[in-house]
């Protein structure tokens, strides 16, 4: 082992002590910065990951919409199904209606799905908590969990649904009676807004409620794993008939602005929290400078014995490196332990403050998601170690500049 490496370790871990005070403070500062970065990146990345997953699980990888309605969806479905890379297609119709149970009313979003095709694109079976999607027909309905709880309905109960078409018919002195449907299922996606305000009916029932005839509002498409959604949207657009004006858009293109805001928030928070690491690096610099001042005579003695300036400098740079490595390791452990207990901590916090409903309303998730990209983790680890190593450069430069004779005269 080179002497300067041995001396660096001895200064960090003096004989008879596990850790010097200055070393412990420096490692703690780095560890806190790393733990904060890991937790913040994981939580921010978790929200982004869950939102992306939710978009794909509820809308598919690619979605086709027309300027108005898609009148004949059958030929379009057949055309799109033949595009290489497409593994599933399903039409849908959507709108807002009035749902009534007893004397309670709600105005949820109503989604009409093709029961025979929907699971090829959207994994609705995975979200059904009570009942079954197989029981959904033109006389039944499936409610989201929070909506069912708000109305106080259960499986087998009957609800009345009406749409804005009722008002249009009344203007023409026509009668359009609300439809009474039996509840056969309750689903939960995990997103507060969808779980509190969504109703699933068959495509035919939705077409009846809105007077669409055979028309649909759009087509959801699932592509094979590993394929680029934007590239597949271009292929599908090339295969679509020009009339009516239909456009296929990838889930990223359709939600580009929202996804950009999420990514920007994540990067801005990471940049702001990076200042914690920078503050810790000044702590490392300060402690190493103190060591240089305290050990001026020893450094002069090393020079007198033949130590070269770059070897003396390396002694202090290595100390910064080891502090960075140890602080990063401790920070990673602390960060992942916190993430493992994040929902328990959040539950305790919301119980003490009574803010569970507020968090769900604004952040849309009942639990705190966590997901960190391996690239982000590498950047945190490498960046922290590099910053800590660079923090030792000025003390190292100061030590290497000491002249042996002047250093030995130091009192």
TrEMBL record:
It is found in: Cell membrane. Pfam families: FtsX, MacB_PCD. InterPro entries: ABC3_permease_C, Lipoprotein-release_system, MacB_PCD. It is a multi-pass membrane protein. Keywords: Cell membrane, Membrane, Transmembrane, Transmembrane helix. Signal peptide: none annotated. The chain crosses the membrane at residues 20-44, 268-292, 312-339, 377-397. It comes from the Bacteria. Residues 271-404 form the ABC3 transporter permease C-terminal domain. One of its GO terms (biological process) is lipoprotein localization to outer membrane. One of its GO terms (cellular component) is plasma membrane protein complex. Residues 23-238 form the MacB-like periplasmic core domain. Belongs to the ABC-4 integral membrane protein family. LolC/E subfamily. This is ABC transporter permease.
């Amino acid at each position: 082992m080179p002497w300067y490496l041995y001396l660096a370790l001895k200064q960090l871990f003096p004989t008879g002590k596990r850790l010097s005070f200055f070393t412990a403070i420096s490692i703690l500062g780095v560890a806190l910065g790393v733990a904060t970065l890991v937790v913040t990146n994981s939580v921010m990345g978790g929200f982004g990951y869950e939102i992306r997953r939710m978009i794909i699980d509820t809308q598919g990888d690619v979605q086709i919409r027309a300027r108005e309605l898609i009148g004949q969806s059958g030929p379009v479905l057949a055309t799109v199904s033949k595009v290489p890379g497409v593994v599933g297609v399903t039409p849908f119709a959507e709108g807002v209606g009035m749902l009534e149970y007893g004397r309670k009313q709600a105005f949820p979003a109503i989604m009409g799905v093709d029961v025979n095709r929907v699971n090829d694109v959207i994994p609705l079976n995975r979200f059904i908590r009570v009942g079954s999607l197989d029981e959904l027909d033109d006389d039944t309905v499936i409610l989201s969990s929070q909506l069912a709880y708000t109305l106080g309905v259960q499986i087998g109960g009957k609800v009345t649904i009406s749409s804005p078409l009722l008002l249009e018919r009344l203007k023409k002195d026509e009668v359009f009676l609300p439809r009474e449907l039996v509840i056969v299922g309750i689903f939960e996606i995990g997103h507060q807004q969808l779980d509190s305000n969504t109703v699933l009916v068959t495509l035919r029932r939705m077409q009846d409620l809105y007077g669409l005839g055979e028309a649909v509002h759009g087509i959801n498409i699932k592509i094979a794993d590993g394929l680029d959604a934007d590239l597949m949207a271009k292929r599908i657009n090339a295969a679509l008939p020009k009339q009516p004006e239909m456009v296929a858009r990838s889930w990223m293109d359709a939600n580009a602005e929202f996804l950009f805001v999420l990514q920007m928030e994540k990067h801005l928070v990471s940049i702001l929290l990076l200042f914690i690491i920078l503050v810790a690096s000044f702590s490392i610099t300060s402690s190493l400078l103190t060591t240089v001042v305290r050990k001026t005579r020893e450094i002069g003695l090393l020079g007198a014995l033949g130590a070269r300036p770059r070897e003396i400098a390396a002694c202090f740079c290595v100390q910064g490196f080891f502090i960075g490595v140890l602080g990063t390791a401790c920070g990673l452990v602390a960060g992942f332990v916190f993430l493992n207990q994040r929902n328990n901590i959040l539950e305790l916090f919301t119980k003490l403050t009574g803010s569970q409903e507020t968090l769900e309303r604004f952040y849309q998730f009942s639990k705190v998601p966590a997901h960190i990209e391996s690239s982000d983790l590498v950047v945190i680890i490498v960046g922290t170690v590099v910053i800590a190593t660079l923090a030792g450069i000025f003390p190292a430069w100061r030590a290497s500049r000491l002249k042996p004779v002047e250093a030995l005269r130091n009192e």
